[in-house]
Amino acid sequence: MTTSTKAPPPPPSGGEEIRDTPLADALGERYLAYALSTIVARSLPDVRDGLKPVHRRLLFAMRQLKLDPAGGFKKCARVVGDVIGKYHPHGDSAVYEAMVRLAQDFAVRWPLVEGQGNFGNIDGDNAAAMRYTEARLTAVAQALMEGLDEDAVDFGPTYDGEEDEPRVMPAAFPNLLANGAQGIAVGMATSIPPHNVGEICDALRLLIQDRETPMDALVQRLPGPDFPTGGVMVEPPDAVRAAYASGRGAFRLRARWAVEKLGHGLFQIVVTEIPYQVQKAKLIERIADLLTSRKLPLLGDVRDESAEDVRIVLEPRSRTVDPDTLMEHLFRQTELEVRASLNMNVLDADGVPRVMDLREVLLAFLDHRHTVLVRRTRHRLDKIAHRLEVLGGYLIAYLNLDEVIRIIREEDHPKPVLIDTFDLTDVQAEAILNMRLRSLRKLEEMEIRKEHDALSAEKIDLEAMLADPARRWARIDEEVARIHADFGPHTPLGKRRTTLGTPPTTVDVPIEAMVEREPITVILSRMGWIRAVKGHPDDLGELRFKDGDSLFTTVRAQTTDKLLLFASNGRYYTIAGDRVPRGRGYGEPVRLIVDVPNDADLVDLHVHRPGAKRLLAASDGRGFVVAEADCVGQTRTGKQVLTPGKDAVAAISRPLDPGGVAGDHVACIGTNRKLLIFPLSQLAELTKGRGVTLQRLKDASLSDVKIIRLVDGLSWPSGERTRTETDLTAWLGDRAQAGKLPPRGFPRDNTFGGG
């Protein structure tokens, strides 16, 4: 009996092979490859530099574009294009979002990118499109990449093999703990909160002295996270130590709040710092929803008064509500309290993901810095050896200069002849042939000998360091000390922002009776009639005034602001923003609000800015600088600040920072049409009085003064245009001089056209 078997199908053309594989095995194999790719190439940071591949490629691409802190900005679209085209073949939106986060000071403790333009805000608003924003590196990012050109780390081919990229950064900055990291991979995740750099350096220096330093000593130096948005960490110290010892845990973080006392026994609660990664707009929306649904019986209202700083105002239902009880309700039901998780799951030096404790993370950074130090030292030694070899050839050439010149002139192939004649290496012979004629001076020979001796001494020192582990670790200790000096708590950004321990005692901040914060535009007429309209409209429309009256000034303010009114009698009068009458009529005389004498002219009206300063001057040519805080009066009669002389008929008030930019010089002009410009530093700062002589005026009076920046020049209106004189040398002098005639085209009324 014959058995027939079916022949297998022929292999497909092109050499392809079809294998029968169970579906479960095929899916498992491919999913495992995907999972490993997600873990290693996307989600988990490297313990050595604290960066994920996308962040590392972003910084490297910006470095290649020479976007250092001292240079200019470039469009983010240019950076993102280079990243996705050369290093990171993913979507441009994902790369741009990663870049935006590195620039947000409320998202990372130490921004690696300095942004210019709209990079989002703490409310959760997105950044502007990448074609509108610009960026460059920060000093921290530069520290991370210090040594890339000195063989400090390994490079590998990019995804298309056309270029090389660093596998890890040299990391002269403890970025992993300083900025933290967040990531979700397949089957694992990482969550590392940011910490204070000064405290990290203290812990690192402990480990340099003793690698077996107990965890208690490390936690004493590094007691907890330091979030960029501040807040109060209320986790017990024992729980913090246990989290750092295991690499897993959580920290209880609360908003920072205080009670502000109002009049008649009323108060309000003001939140000034919110927990990390909480969007302020969504937080307020959540509180408002709970208020609407009557789940917060102790709360009466919530409003957002934030400007550059966070300020969330919570009004209690009644004056009998206990502030601590109200806040406990909010902490339990809103994101005014969060738990910041700790999961130090990172890639170690071998690229293996694992959870490390605090000591292991710190030691991994130190070991990486040790490796970088050794590699950079050997690279430097190679450079020195090559240079010494070249210098040795130069010295031989100088000792035999005539013969070298003869060989070069007469031989068709001088290089082999030089090598045979003077026993030179190929490098030395090539260097001699490439010498310039101007290098054949005696002075150049002396410089070469000096350089040869210096490099030889440096070589001996570096070789000694490579042979001595103690010296290497001493050098690393110096590097950590430098990090502490550059980014530690004595620097503005290095101060701790998050309070550790139990919530602080409620601090009462008594202030004047407050009204609901509302924008208003104050309108003051020349005859002293004052009124306000709601909001800050660009066009106030047609304003109505009494017969013979006209507009004096308009001021944008808030109902909670204080307005300072300056009169020609040298007195400042304080007007509360909520006292200004509303409506579009004539308003009411300002003399019904404050006691301005009828014979005093109105000089200036502006919003009081705490900390600001102003220049006051009288027509007799005397004046001084005064702090606005010394101008605020408590009564209707105002506060006497400037004391005009007997011949003074007018007064002038000017801010020291017109347009928001601090000035450095004072420009004075008198009715005699003499202009004088002198340094602002020559003026004294007083609280009241006549002041000092600004300009010597003979048979004349002071017409106008102005604060300017010398680099910007002096500007004045000329018809519908503005003229600027940039070369002010002719009018520069010292205080109390007479001055000279102003530039051609200066206004005939001898004024600068306003402050």
From TrEMBL:
Q: GO terms for CC?
A: chromosome; cytoplasm; DNA topoisomerase type II (double strand cut, ATP-hydrolyzing) complex; extrinsic component of plasma membrane
| Reaction catalysis annotation | ATP-dependent breakage, passage and rejoining of double-stranded DNA
Q: Where is this site: Interaction with DNA?
A: 52, 88, 90
Family matches, as CDD domains: TOP4c (cd00187)
EC nos = 5.6.2.2
Is Isomerase tagged as a keyword?
Answer: yes
**Active-site residues, Swiss-Prot/TrEMBL:** 132
| Primary location class | membrane
Which residues carry the site feature described as Transition state stabilizer?
131
User: What is one GO biological process annotated to this record?
Assistant: chromosome segregation
Q: Enzyme group, top EC level?
A: isomerase
Keyword terms? Cell membrane, DNA-binding, Isomerase, Membrane, Topoisomerase
Q: Where is this region: Disordered?
A: 1-20
Localization? Cell membrane
Q: How does the record say this protein sits in the membrane?
A: Peripheral membrane protein
**What PROSITE patterns does UniProt report for this protein, alphabetically?**
TOPO_IIA
Name all Topo IIA-type catalytic domain ranges.
44-514
GO MF annotation list: ATP binding; DNA binding; DNA topoisomerase type II (double strand cut, ATP-hydrolyzing) activity
Q: What does this protein do?
A: Topoisomerase IV is essential for chromosome segregation. It relaxes supercoiled DNA. Performs the decatenation events required during the replication of a circular DNA molecule.
Description of how the protein assembles with itself and partners:
Heterotetramer composed of ParC and ParE.
Which family does the record claim for this protein?
Belongs to the type II topoisomerase GyrA/ParC subunit family. ParC type 1 subfamily.
| Stated name of the protein | DNA topoisomerase 4 subunit A
- Give the classification, highest ranks: Bacteria, Pseudomonadati, Pseudomonadota, Alphaproteobacteria, Rhodospirillales
